[in-house]
Structures are given as structure tokens and as C-alpha cells.
Amino acid sequence: MATNNVAQMVLVEEDGLPCGNRVQPFSTPTAKQVSFFSNILTPLKAMFSCVFSHAFCSIEQWEVDHGKKENLLTLGERLGVEDLYSLNVWRASVGELLGSAVLVFMLDTIVISSFETQTKTPNVLMSILIGITITILLLAVFPISGGHMNPVISFSAALVGLISLSRAFIYIFAQCIGALLGALALQAVVSDTITQTFSLGGCTLTVIAPGPNGPVVTGIKTSQALWLEIICTFIFLFASIWLAYDHRQAKALGVLVVFSIIGTILGLLVFVSTSLTGKKGYAGAGMNPARCLGPAMIRGGHLWDGHWVFGVGPAISCMAFYIYTKIIPSNHFHANGYRHDFFNVLRALI
Fold first, then answer.
1. Which of 46-55, 62-71, 277-286, 294-303 has the highest mean pLDDT?
2. Res. 259 pLDDT band, cuts 50 70 90
3. Which residue from 221, 218, 263, 255 is spatially nearest to 239, judged by alpha carbons?
4. What is the 3-state secondary structure (H, E, C) of the chain?
């Protein structure tokens, strides 16, 4: 009899997968009920299978396509080689060239004038004037090229991925040419006596001064100068350039405030580096390899003694700053730019 039979039903486990036919000891459904539930469950099962299969396939396909896209990028694309052929990049580099030329001329003039002025604290006057000058030049050059005027900024910006390494190379080349032109302009307007006495306001570790028993060398040790260069450049990047790199803070503070902070920090670092040692002959932390290179190429002589310090020190600081940006949580540093940072390029090489 139909009333005495035990019906078989298709149950669904908690995870939604069929577990097969199981005998259930409760009321017996009629043929119409079985047919009704079967007509409902079968389309639903097919629908959900289709939806979830499509979703998972879409995710997997996106991951595959994204990985392929990253892997298909050539080393040239990661280096930004197209910037080498971009007219706009080279036109922007003219701003870097002229900005660096004016920067070297102004800074070296400030160095000479501060020590020529009859004041007991020439380094204080020099630091204030340097801070003001840098702020003004940043505001002038920023709309053209970003206002680097310093290989430290261009190199660190390339490391963190704000600009391509190719663009950084163009900017640094323009900065060095500009520094050379600035030193030439300074040499053309000052006397030979001042040029010899102040070494064109260049970066020096030691100078040769007259002594009771003949010329003597005064200054600081190379190791001291290297550490000062590394520490001061890192503080420069950490305390001021960081604000310019992070678009959130730059937008919140405004261009004028950010550049004023950069100028103030640089002025303070010049004051600290020149006052800390208390040695005549040491011109203070350069923090700008191009600015040190210009007078050295024009004046030569003792300006080349230990000159490598003013290039190696900032390079180490840039790498240290880049590693720091990788260590901190990503939500604390937001930089919009080229996207391919140093590790990204290195991974492509490997």
C-alpha cells in the first residue's frame, strides 16, 4: 500500500552538496509532491552551480591575466626607457638645468658672502639665507619638472617609484650640467683672491692655510665627513622630502608649506653640520652631489680631495630611505607615480 511504503527523498547536506538517496521514516509524499520538489530543486541546483563556477573561474582568470600582464612587462618598460625618447621629459630637464645653475650660483655666493660679512656667527646667516633661497627656487621649478634640482631627490624618487630610472638619469645629467654652468658664472664675477680663498664656495673637507711654520691642512677626517653626509641626507629625506612624496600630506599642507619645510630643514642641517665639527676647512654637509661637483670641476685642486664622500654618502642615504619606506606599513606611505620601484625592476632582472 502507498500509505505503508517508506518514500525515498533526495536530501541536501549543510554544505549544499547532494548526499544521495536516503530512506526517511516520515510521511510518504505523493507522486505529485515528489515531482513538484524535483522540478524546483533541479533548476536551483543548476543555477547555483553555474553562478559559483562562473565566479571562481572569473577570479582565477583575473589572477592569471594579471600575472601574465606583470610578467609580460619588459625590462625596458620597467626602466621607463620611453622617457629617453620623450620630448616633454627633455624639455622638463631644462628646468632642472637652469634651476641647478641658479641654485649653485646662489648657494656658493651665500657661502662666500656670509663669511665675508663682519659677523660673529656667519653660519647662522648662511643657514637662514640658504633656507629662503631653496624655498623660492622650489616654487619656481616645481611646475616645470617637479622641482628636484638635486640628484638625491631624483634618485630617491626613482627608487620609491615616483619617476622612472630613465627620467631620473636625464634629470641628474641636467642637474650636473647646470651645476657646472652655475660654478662658471660664479667664477666669472668674483675675483681670483676670493676664488682661491673660498674655493668657489664648493664642498671641501680640508683647506690649506698658512701657519707659523708653513702651510698647514685644517679640516675633518674623511670618515667623519662620510657619516655626516649619510646622517644629514637621511634626515633631509625623512623629515622633509617625505612630505612631498606622500600626495596626501602634500595636498593637505599645500605646496608653499611643504617647500618652506624643506628649505627650513636644509638650512638647519647646514647650520648643524658646520657648527658640530667647529673645524675650519670643512664646508658642511653637501646633501647635493651636483652642487659639489660643479665647483670641483671648475676650481679643481683640493676640492677633489675626498670628493667621493659627497656622492657615496647621499647614495647610501637614498637606499636607506627606500628600505625604510618598504619596512613601514603600506598605509602610512602613499606615493602616486611610475609604480615600478627599485625592487620591481630588480625582480625583472632576476
1. 294-303
2. very high
3. 263
4. CCCCCCCEEEEECCCCCEEEEEECCCCCCCHHHHHHHHHHHHHHHHHHHHHHHHHHHHHHHHHHHHHHHHHHCCHHHHHCHHHHHCHHHHHHHHHHHHHHHHHHHHHHHHHHHHHHCCCCCHHHHHHHHHHHHHHHHHHHHHHHHCCCCCHHHHHHHHHHCCCCHHHHHHHHHHHHHHHHHHHHHHHHHCCHHHHHHHHHHCCCCEEEECCCCCCEEEECCHHHHHHHHHHHHHHHHHHHHHHHHCHHHHHHHCHHHHHHHHHHHHHHHHHHHHHHHCCCCCCCCCCCHHHHHHHHHHHCHHHHCCCCHHHHHHHHHHHHHHHHHHHCCHHHCCCCCCCCCHHHHHHHHC
pTM: predicted TM-score of the whole model, two decimal places? 0.77
- 134-154 pLDDT per residue, tens: 999 999 999 999 999 999 999
Angle at 185 between CA 184 and CA 188, to 5 degrees: 90
